[in-house]
Amino acid sequence: MRHGRINGFMKKVQQEDYIIQNLGECAIQSPVIVNDFTPDSKRLLLKQYLDYSNTGKNKDEKVKREIPLSVEVAGPREKIFFDPSKTKAAIVTCGGLCPGINDVIRAIVMQLYHRYGVRNIIGIKYGFQGLIPSYGHEIVELTPESVENIHREGGSILSSSRGQQNIGEMVDALSRMNVNIFFCIGGDGTMRAAERITEEITRRKLSISLIGIPKTIDNDLNFVQKTFGFDTAIAESENAISCAHVEAKGAPMGIGLVKIMGRLSGQIAVGAALAQNDVNFVLIPEVPFDLEGENGLFKALEKRLIRRKHCVILVAEGAGQELMRTNNTPQETDASGNIRLLDIGYFLKVRIEDYFKKAGIQINLKYIDPSYMIRSVRASASDSIYCSALGQYAVHAGMAGKTGMLVGLLKDEYVHLPIRVVTSGKQIDPEGNLWMRVLESTGQPPSLLNKPLDPPVEEHVVI
Ligand SMILES: Nc1ncnc2c1ncn2[C@@H]1O[C@H](COP(=O)(O)OP(=O)(O)OP(=O)(O)O)[C@@H](O)[C@H]1O
Ligand SMILES: O=P(O)(O)OC[C@H]1O[C@](O)(CO)[C@@H](O)[C@@H]1O
Ligand SMILES: [Mg+2]
What Pfam families does the database record attribute to this sequence (predicted)? Predict the structure, then answer.
């Protein structure tokens, strides 16, 4: 039996209260096409926590061996590891810019200063470069006054960078500067670096806590329900999609083609399509498609144009890369080792125009690429709320001496995740409900392939 607070009164809540009424037996087959129907017998456990505080010694052993799959819940701890009056904290921001970085920096500084009384907080400039003396970047002091208004601006007051730095040299710098807690704000690359930095700190037996905060508009960190900046990026994409829709409807046989960021995952494209509902085709890296052939994109587009006279296509920048590459295409990478993508937006524009020219159908295609405009803005209200929470929970974790971990939302709960589990990359499941909802709301064919793909060998991690 559980208790719930309703209108200020405590009310006993029992399992019977959660039974849903049915009008009667359902005897008619549903016309909805999905891979998995949801049976009434599938239920969500309500806020189940597990408390193993009275287990005596070897608690970690107990978690490893006896406790079912679970993660540590974030929050202030009764006992902390670092003495606030002697604690020095450092903050770094790495990888691409993202809405909300300044909100997180502000939240960390305010929480350290006002809740814990930490007075020594520094900012590392230009990502991990700032820890390498030869770059000559200054170290900046962070105070409540210096961060007071930074959340009103996009970008990062500390700036950022890409490119690998020597792990040993970075740990030398942290140790030389007597840093006790190192907050790393970044995406998958940053977390891979953070994992290696933690290993080196552990190898040297240093008492430096490393806490990650999940930043990236791509929302591609495993187990993290949502990275900060993602919601804002979706909201910012809306304008480009609306404009594409207006342009498509404003001319005979109009096509609005929008390319949106999203390197290895189409999370932003999917989110924007579901938020916008003017999109007719969503193309993402996780779902391959053919251009030509009876089931390919061109034929589907032609059918749609004949039927509705206009069409909006939203393509994630990482989609359809295999259509543009030949065996001789060089595989270029950026300074951090991320694969440089070929331009699917321009490629599709040229190929679609070419197809309809050959088919003798006059179209009007307008191509929009909002590019960096979706990530260099300030955070939306919902992202700002998320960023403050992440900053606050990161400080609680750091002060408690936790390390090699990241704070994040999982199943609507703030949790501590070991950094090693988040870096493997999160993608949209083409068989999952999210993609099914995209297919339903766009009306695009379930597959734009002429030949079905071989079934996947690996199983998806389901959380
Ligand atoms: N395996 C690694 N070892 C050491 N450093 C790494 C490693 N992977 C990435 N880094 C470094 O981490 C930093 C951030 O990585 P990256 O540029 O890939 O951005 P990110 O954190 O993934 O963010 P985003 O994808 O949102 O831009 C870079 O300085 C990069 O060189
Ligand atoms: O800043 P850069 O190096 O051009 O990076 C662009 C990439 O960064 C991201 O914005 C975030 O990883 C991606 O969506 C995009 O592919
Ligand atoms: Mg990345």
Answer: PFK (PF00365)
- The residue ranges of every structural domain in the chain are 1-229+379-427, 230-376+429-442
From 3.30.499.10, 3.40.50.460, 3.30.930.10, 3.80.30.20, which CATH number describes the 230-376+429-442 domain? Answer: 3.40.50.460
**Residue 15 in contact with ligand 1 by CB distance below 6 A:** no
113 Cβ contact list (under 8 Å, min separation 6): 119, 121, 143, 144
Question: Is there a catalytic annotation at residue 218?
Answer: yes
Distance (angstroms) between ligand 2 centre and the Cα of 119 equals 34
Domains 1-229+379-427 and 230-376+429-442 agree in fold: yes
pLDDT tens digits, one per residue of 211-255: 999 999 999 999 999 999 999 999 999 999 999 999 999 999 999
User: Ligand 3 centre from 300 Cα, in Å?
Assistant: 33
Whether the CB-CB separation of 159 and 123 falls below 8 Å is answered with no
The ipTM value here is 0.98
What is the rounded CA–CA span in Å between residue 179 and residue 90? 6
Indicate the DSSP class of residue 250.
T
What pTM, to 2 d.p., does this model score?
0.92
Q: 343-364, pLDDT tens digit by residue? A: 999 999 999 999 999 999 999 9
Give the C-alpha distances (Å, rounded to integers) separating 193 from 127, 165, 184, 225, 419.
11, 9, 10, 21, 10
User: Looking at domain 1-229+379-427, which CATH architecture does it have?
Assistant: 3-Layer(aba) Sandwich (3.40)
263 is in an annotated binding site: yes
Taking a 5 Å cut-off on Cβ, the residues next to ion ligand 3 are: 187-189
Rounded distance from Cα 128 to ligand 1 centre (Å): 9
